[in-house]
Amino acid sequence: MNIRQLALQIIHDVDVKQAYANIALANMINRNNFSDQDRRFLTELVYGTVKAWGTIDWIMSRYVDRPPAKIPPMIRNILRLGLYQLFFLSKVPPSAACNQAVELAKKYGHPGTVKFVNAVLRSAARNQEKAKYPTKEEDLLRYLALTYFHPEWLVSRWLKRFDSEAVERLLQENNKPPRLSLRTNTLKITREALLVRLAQEGVTCTASDWTPEGIICHELPALASLTSLKEGLFQVQDESSMLVAHVVDPQPGEFVIDACGAPGGKSTHLAALMKNTGRLLSVDLFEHKLAITRENARRLGITCLETLQTDAATLSDQFSGKADRVLVDAPCSGLGVLRRKPDSRWRKTESQLQDLPKLQLSILTGAASCLKPGGVLVYSTCTTEPEENEMVIREFLSIRPDFSLQSAGSRLPSPRQGEFVQLWPHLDFVDGFFISRLKKH
Ligand SMILES: C[S@@+](CC[C@H](N)C(=O)[O-])C[C@H]1O[C@@H](n2cnc3c(N)ncnc32)[C@H](O)[C@@H]1O
């Protein structure tokens, strides 16, 4: 099996068909019976190349006088894969990286492109100095963006907010694979009993400091092989995401709406805190995502949850003044969770940060009208940018004086100061997350 060829197929699909690297890779692994070594090498090639995409293209520009967009797609992706191995995979000998790329060019190109690939990669292998990044002192922005594989617009944004050391730590943290965390399904088992059960199934894990249900896995066999998963004893969920339901603080017997609910991580947590009583309405725009919510609820033994496919901005047409609590876990740029998907940083654009707040405000305003007087509204995102977070809340408060801000920090299992909660990967070592809480008068 030619692992580089398979890696090239995935990288090409990410480039040309906007495929998601993690999904394309998982499909490839499921379709083939790879040895552990091959699976690891394929993962390294794909994740490494797509994460370093911008830096690799900058390196390419040092050896090729055309921009990548002007090179035929398959050939530029062969170069990307080759340059990744030359510059970032020390265990691959440069001759192997070049020869294998030339073989791929023979398969997908013509004699001219074979010569081109050969010339570019051999020149890069001979003269790596030519692709030396500027130093911090010469060009801080470019140094950080190239060294830590982030788009310049994003680094520039963060440099306006924080000093360069803090930005460097954040970029480093965004490149580390996140720890796997699980939320105990307290409807079926206590965290202590689940820790024992997981240890029996070969999982090395410890209790989370952030939430009373959280468990951090350090080593584990394939997740799908765990019977505790099939029995619905836990839900995979990041620790910062687990905090949101605690800020909502739903009570047994209440009517709670999760306005952007799929695939149900927080909906199923809310249902567990409600002790599977009352009514939990999990709403989403997409039926195929709601099907996953229902499947999660079934596996976890939750019966108080129902799903509804609709636009949350229009929810009050059906539920005006009816709900005790509403959660809006809004669609967002996802800049707090870059470490989860290696290619996601290259899909984001600064213009999304202008468009998303309008959507977020319209969903928040529509969903808020479902609350009874005295009801609680929680707004959360997995982003770190003020335009999508506190500025949306300030704008909402200016048009809805019947709401007031409450402290979200004081509702965390380990309380913090402040009205808003903003978590950061480099400060809190969890996903970047924003949580706010309001009350309707
Ligand atoms: C951040 S995700 C929610 C994650 C979910 N709360 C969880 O914990 O599993 C945002 C969700 O909002 C949904 N969405 C986007 N626009 C929407 C709208 N206008 N109305 C309802 N849902 C929407 C998306 O389909 C997506 O599933």
UniProtKB/TrEMBL annotation:
Keyword Zinc applies: no
Localization terms from the record: Cytoplasm
EC identifiers of the protein: 2.1.1.176
Catalytic reaction list: cytidine(967) in 16S rRNA + S-adenosyl-L-methionine = 5-methylcytidine(967) in 16S rRNA + S-adenosyl-L-homocysteine + H(+)
Catalytic residue positions: C382
Superkingdom classification of source: Bacteria
Binding positions for S-adenosyl-L-methionine per the UniProt entry: D284, D311, D329
Family per record: Belongs to the class I-like SAM-binding methyltransferase superfamily. RsmB/NOP family. Belongs to the NusB family.
Taxonomic source organism: Anaerosporomusa subterranea
PROSITE patterns named in the record: SAM_MT_RSMB_NOP (PS51686)
Biological role: Specifically methylates the cytosine at position 967 (m5C967) of 16S rRNA.
NCBIfam families, sorted: nusB, PRK14902.1, rsmB
InterPro entries tied to this protein: MeTrfase_RsmB-F_NOP2_cat (IPR049560), MeTrfase_RsmB-F_NOP2_dom (IPR001678), NusB-like_sf (IPR035926), NusB_fam (IPR011605), NusB_RsmB_TIM44 (IPR006027), RCMT (IPR023267), rRNA_ssu_MeTfrase_B (IPR004573), RsmB-like_ferredoxin (IPR054728)
Alphabetized Gene3D superfamilies for the sequence: NusB-like, Sun protein, domain 3, Vaccinia Virus protein VP39
GO cellular component: cytoplasm
Gene Ontology terms: biological process: DNA-templated transcription termination; transcription antitermination
UniProt xrefs under PANTHER family: NOP2 YEAST -RELATED NOL1/NOP2/FMU SUN DOMAIN-CONTAINING, RIBOSOMAL RNA SMALL SUBUNIT METHYLTRANSFERASE B-RELATED
Residue intervals of the SAM-dependent MTase RsmB/NOP-type domain: 170-441
EC primary class: transferase
The entry's keywords: Cytoplasm, Methyltransferase, RNA-binding, rRNA processing, S-adenosyl-L-methionine, Transcription, Transcription antitermination, Transcription regulation, Transferase
UniProt key word Methyltransferase: yes
Protein name per UniProt: 16S rRNA (cytosine(967)-C(5))-methyltransferase
Any one GO molecular function term: RNA binding
